[in-house]
Amino acid sequence: MDALTGHLGEFGHGLVTTVHMTVVTTIGALLLGVIVATLRICPVPLLRGVGTVYVEVLQNLPLLALLVLFVFALPTIGITFPLFTSAAIVISAYEGAYLAEAIRAGINTVGVGQAEAARAIGLTFSQSLRYVILPQGLRAVIQPMGTICIALLMNTSLAAAVGVVELTQAANNVNLVEAQPIAVFTGAGLAYMLLALLISRITGALERRFAIVR
Amino acid sequence: MVSVRGLQKWFGPLHVLKDVDLTVAAGEVVVVIGPSGSGKSTLCRCLNRLEVAGAGTIEIDGEPLPAEGRKLARLRADVGMVFQSFNLFGHRTVLDNVTLGPVRVRRVPKAEAREQALALLDRVGIADKADHYPAQLSGGQQQRAAIARALAMRPKVLLFDEPTSALDPEMVNEVLDVMVSLAAEGMTMIVVTHEMGFARRAADRVVFMDDGRIVESGTPDEFFAAPRTDRARDFLSKILQH
Ligand SMILES: Nc1ncnc2c1ncn2[C@@H]1O[C@H](COP(=O)(O)OP(=O)(O)OP(=O)(O)O)[C@@H](O)[C@H]1O
Ligand SMILES: [Mg+2]
Q1: Residue of B nearest to A117 (CA)
Q2: Amino acid A5: pLDDT
Q3: What are the TM regions of this chain, as residue ranges (chain B) (predicted)?
C-alpha cells in the first residue's frame, strides 16, 4: 500500500494528464468523426472518397505504429510538436475514424423521408444535416460512441510509448522505484475503471436526456 | 404557375414518365389519379426535384427548375410538399417542425416565426399540440402538422402525394377538410389522391395517368360522369366499387 500512498503526487500527475488527454482527444475525435461521417455521405464523389480513404487508412493501422510514426518521422521533415500535442493529435485522428463509422451508422438509421422533408422546405444539404439528420443520427448512437470514448481512454495509455507521462507511465515509473507491480498497477487499473465508469454514466445521462419520443 | 413540358423519367431501364405535359394555373387545384405504378408520385417528386427528370422542362412561376445547390433550395422553399408518411422531424416538437423552415430558410425572427406557426397550427386545428412531439400525435394530427409546416414557408404551390393513404379511415376527413379550405382560399395545389370526394369538392381539374402518361384531363364533373378513355373508365369502375 505504501507503494501507492507514498507516490500520490506522481499518480495524481499521471491521472490529471490522462484525464486531460482524454477530454482533449474526445473533443477532437468527435469533431473529426462528424466531419468525416459527413464527407462519407455527401453528394460530391470526391469528398466521399476522401472520407472513405481516411477511415480505411486509420482503422487499418495500429495506433501504436501511428504514434511512433508521427512522433519520430515528422521531425525529420522539420515539423515538431510538444509530445502531449502529438499524442493528442494522433489519438484524435485515430478514434475519429471509429467515431465517424459509428456516426455514419447513426445517420443511416434516419429515414430518407426526413432528409426529403428537410430538402422540401428549402434547407440546403448542410442545413438539413445540421438541423435534421445529425441531431437524430447522433442520438441513435450515443451508446456506441460512449464505448468508443472508453476505448479512447484506454488508448491514451499508448501515449506512454512516445514519452508522455500519463497514468500508465506514472505507474511504471513508481514501479521502477518500488518494485511492487501488483499494488501499483492495481491502483492504476482502478483509476481507469473509475474513469470508464464515469464515461458510461455520462453516456447514460446523455442518452436519457436526448431520447427521441417515440 | 407550374409548367411541365415533355417530361421524361427513367429509373434505370424503367421508363416511368413518358413525355408528360402539365400546366397548372395560379389558384388552380389539380387532382392526379391513376393506377399504382403509373408515375404519379414520380411526377410530383420531379416538380421539386426530389427526383431529377431525364428530359423535358419544368418551370415554377416562370422560373426553370435550377440544378442542385442554393438556388434549388430557394425554389424548394416556394414549393411545399406533403408526404404520404408525414415525415415530421421526430426530434422536434410540432412547433419547432413548423418554425424550422421560416427561421433557417426565410430568416424570419424566431418570435415572429413562432407566432405565425401557432396561428397556422390553430388553423389546422392542433394548436393544443404545439409542444408535443410527432410520435405523440395521431396520424391525422401529424398530417395536419405537416401541412402547417409546408404552409409556414408561404409556398406558391403545394404538392400532396397521397396525403390520406396512410391514415385510418376516421382521420381522413380532418385532413381533407384542411385541404378543401386551402383550395377555397386560392392555394395552387397538385394533389395525388384516390379520394374522389375531395376531387369533386375541391378540384378544378382531374388528370388521369396511366403507364407514365397523362391519358386524360378534364373537370371533375366531366371526368367522373363520362371518362373518355377505356383505361379511365376501367380504373374508375374499380375504385368506385369500394
Ligand atoms: N427510386 C426508384 N427506383 C426504381 N424504380 C422506381 C423508384 N421509384 C419508383 N419507381 C418505379 O417507377 C414506377 C412509378 O412509380 P410511382 O411511385 O411514381 O407510381 P405511383 O403512380 O405513385 O404509384 P402508387 O399509386 O403505388 O403510389 C413504378 O413502376 C415504380 O416501381
Ligand atoms: Mg405514389
Answers
A1: B87
A2: 82
A3: none
* Residue (of A10, A1, A6, A22) closest to A170 by Cα position: A10
The pLDDT score that the predictor gives to residue B65 is 87
Min distance A67 CA to chain B CA atoms (Å): 39
The SS3 call for residue B100 is helix
**Residue B241: predicted pLDDT:** 67
**pLDDT score for A1:** 64
Cβ–Cβ under 8 Å, residues B236 and B206: no
> Which strands form B157-161's sheet, in the order they lie side by side?
B79-82, B157-161, B188-192, B29-33, B205-210, B213-218
* Residue from the list A113, A120, A214 with its beta carbon closest to the beta carbon of B85: A113
Q: Which of A44, A107, A119, A121 is the best substitution to test chain B (most B C-beta atoms within 10 A)?
A: A121
Domains of chain A by residue range: 2-210
- For residue A190, the model assigns a pLDDT of 95
Write down the pLDDT at residue A156: 95
Domain B2-240 is classified in which CATH homologous superfamily? P-loop containing nucleotide triphosphate hydrolases (3.40.50.300)
Digit-coded pLDDT (tens) for A115-126: 999 999 999 999
**CA A42 / ligand 1 centre spacing (Å):** 25
Which residue lies with its CA nearest to atom 3 of ligand 1? B11
Q: How far is A110 from chain B (nearest CA, A)?
A: 10
Q: Where are the domains of chain B?
A: 2-240
Residue B239: predicted pLDDT: 80
Give the pLDDT confidence of B172-190 residue by residue, as tens digits.
Answer: 999 999 999 999 999 999 9
What interhelical angle do A142-155 and A8-41 show, nearest 10? 130
Task: State the Cα angle at A82 between A80 and A83, rounded to 5°.
Answer: 105
| Complex confidence, ipTM | 0.92
Pick from A87, A191, A74, A203: nearest CA to A148: A203
| Averaged pLDDT, A165-189 | 91
- Mean per-residue pLDDT, A39-52: 94
Cell numbers for A35, please give them.
466531419
Q: Give domain A2-210's CATH superfamily.
A: MetI-like (1.10.3720.10)
Contact B157, B189 (CB under 8 A): yes
Q: Which amino acid is at A135?
A: P
Angle at B232 between CA B205 and CA B26, to 5 degrees: 15
State the Cα–Cα distance between residues B76 and B8, nearest whole angstrom: 20
